[in-house]
Design a protein that fits this description.
By secondary structure, this protein is α/β, with parallel strands linked by helices. It contains 18 helices and 20 strands. The strands form 5 sheets. It has a 7-stranded mixed beta sheet with strand order 7-6-16-17-18-15-19, sandwiched between helices. Strands 9-2-1-13-20 form a 5-stranded parallel beta sheet. A hairpin with a 2-residue loop joins strand 6 (88-92) and strand 7 (95-99).
């Protein structure tokens, strides 16, 4: 039997939390959203401001194989979505290589001898692949050969994760680079676009994407406003402190603390959480069993910070971002915010570059003074030859904790243990999104988990298994799609809950 007007509390106002809250509030549910950040909604997809400049925290392309998600973006933001060309390159040994790989560009810049070694390494990997690849290194070597792995994957990946590629699960590579191989990249570079089948283009290779005129946060600010217009509440600066369920009534009580230290209680029939599992486990009262709590606490997350440098717009690269494959510097990726959207930079004579440093919260980089980080970023830009001395005129540091769930050797068992306990003992508590499910999902996948969860709640039945989102290769890369009407869609069968 359907619950016509459920009370739902959403922990977190990122893409997943706001997508679920918007869908529910527009359907008549009573919705409350609690967000820890005192200023911004959007989570890692927020847009921060400084002296009229806007910063995308991480770089977010609005592109999906799901027409339903793309239509939802249009519905939320309308004509504020602009179309942008995708351009990104890899900086290696002082040269910028096109990414996605273009065969002749790579051949010219690597040189004949190195290119020959790469191709021989690739054919060797295809003829004799590593059986049962368990690590990131194994998986990428099978796809590209060990030499190309060493050139274009190893240095950057180890910067991002702060661990050796042999310690990273093959699951991460399979999820993030699925559908991309050397053969695919060469085909994409060599064959005219009219001969390619658009539906088979891996997401890694797309050439254009949509982008909010004022940065990704504009999307989620609009979504929050629409939730409130529909009668829902969105509260910022709210730190959840407790989460308890009455076993008889099934009602949840959520305790949160506002910026002034005042405690507030909310009651709900359902709780949707996009908070990191390691945090959620600490909120639940009474505490989970020791084994479950230990598993949750052992889950790891990678943090990063962006040093946004305001520079004179003289000979700046025009890429959306550049991957830095250079062990002599600490920066891992550099964004050009003006290339994402010129409306994010208020002065046409200036530009804004975002240097991303991957770290763990509390380590040397994270704990450095802002002035020290701005100076480091300036020096590294000059060292890499991307600006000349004296062109940096100001800077701002943005820290982002819990940005990336770490796929280490035992992460899957830990998540499975926590999720199984939750399902059995805590009905009505739903996990969504990247950190909520400890899945390194793209924004569209996080939104899909939220939409399916909202529908489960509205129907009063568990129609959809949200844990299958982005486990189905067809959904992730080929584009199995749901129609736009919720009542008439086609869904990959693997999404639907087993009838047994």
């Amino acid at each position: 039997m359907k619950n016509q007007s459920p009370r739902v509390l959403c922990i977190g106002a990122g893409p997943a939390g706001l997508t679920a809250a918007r869908r529910l509030s527009l359907s008549g549910a009573s919705v409350t959203v609690l967000e820890r950040d005192p200023v911004y909604v959007g989570g890692i997809s927020r847009t921060e401001h400084y002296k009229g400049f806007r910063f995308d925290v991480g770089g977010h392309r609005f592109f999906s194989k799901s027409k339903e998600i793309e239509a939802l973006w249009d519905e939320i933001l309308g004509d504020q979505l602009i179309s942008r060309e995708r351009k990104s390159r890899i900086l290696y040994r002082g040269k910028l290589f096109d990414y996605p790989l273009r065969a002749f560009d790579a051949l010219k810049k690597l040189g004949l001898m190195e290119s020959t070694r790469c191709m021989l390494s690739y054919f060797r990997a295809r003829l004799s692949p590593i059986r049962d690849p368990r690590t990131f290194e194994d998986w990428v070597t099978n796809q590209f050969g060990h030499r190309l792995y060493s050139i274009f994957f190893k240095t950057y990946t180890e910067k991002v994760w702060g661990m050796k590629c042999q310690e990273i699960s093959a699951d991460w590579a399979a999820q993030r680079i699925k559908g991309l191989s050397l053969g695919t990249a060469v085909w994409k570079a060599s064959v005219p676009s009219w001969l390619r089948k658009a539906g088979n283009t891996p997401k890694t290779l797309i050439e254009t994407f949509k982008y909010p005129r004022l940065g990704p946060g504009q999307m989620w600010e609009a979504a929050a406003e629409q939730i409130q217009e529909a009668g829902g509440d969105v509260f910022l600066g709210m730190n959840v402190r407790g989460l308890a369920r009455d076993s008889e009534s099934g009602v949840w009580t959520v305790t949160a603390e506002d910026p002034d230290g005042q405690s507030h209680e909310y009651q709900a029939d359902h709780v949707i959480s996009s908070a990191a599992i390691v945090d959620l486990a600490e909120y639940i009262q009474p505490a989970p069993p020791e084994a479950v709590l230990t598993a949750a606490r052992a889950l790891r997350y990678r943090d990063f910070l962006t040093v946004a440098l305001i520079v004179r717009d003289v000979d700046c690269f025009d890429d959306n971002w550049i991957y830095i494959h250079d062990s002599s510097v600490k920066v891992g990726r550099i964004q050009n915010f003006k290339s994402w959207s010129p409306h994010m930079v208020p002065d046409p004579e200036l530009n804004c570059l975002g240097l991303e440093y991957f770290c763990f919260k509390g380590d040397g980089l994270w704990s450095s003074e802002d002035e020290e980080l701005i100076r480091l970023a300036d020096e590294e830009l000059i060292h890499l030859g991307l600006v000349t001395p004296g062109h940096v005129i100001d800077g701002k540091v943005i820290r982002q904790s819990g940005a990336y769930p770490v796929y280490d050797e035992d992460y899957e068992e830990r998540v499975d243990l926590f999720q199984a306990w939750l399902k059995k003992k805590m009905p009505g508590l739903h996990l969504v999104g990247r950190n909520g499910m400890h899945k390194y999902n793209n924004q569209d996948h996080a939104m899909m988990t939220a939409l399916l969860t909202a529908e489960n709640i509205l129907s009063g039945e568990e129609l959809w298994d949200v844990w299958k989102v982005n486990q189905d290769a067809d959904y992730h890369e080929v584009g199995e799609d749901r129609t736009l009407a919720f009542s008439e869609r086609k869904v990959p069968e693997t999404y639907r809950k087993s009838e047994s």
